Amino acid sequence: MTIDEDHTRPDGVDDLTVEALGKISEALEAVEVARGALYTFHRLSGTADLTLGEGVDQLREAGHTELADRIERDLVGRNVLNGRWTFQVVEEYDDGYYACFRELERAAREELVQGKRHLYEAEMKEDRRTHGRSGHEPTP
What we know:
By secondary structure, this protein is mostly helical. 68% of the residues lie in helices and 0% in strands.
């Protein structure tokens, strides 16, 4: 193989270990996407609350004070989950599940393959690329 040292399997590491670490890495990538969706939820919920506040102000200016007051009292600034705004949901996810997942994925790589990342993908690249062909170089 001609892949770089950072992506070369350490001596004595079997295929199943590399495949297992590849699956764990793939799972972490899914968690990263889920985290992005959670941040999207956070941003959209915040935008909705601010926009709702503007709409309530306009209702009040249009003379619909009672309805504006009701929406403002019951919905503007309301928790999205029991006792939580979205920033609190994001923080709890980041500090709990996400932090644990990242730490254990890293620990598995450190223990089994000297911390090297993406070994499965690097070996797949080496297997699938056309050697000697422009655009198929092993490294930049």
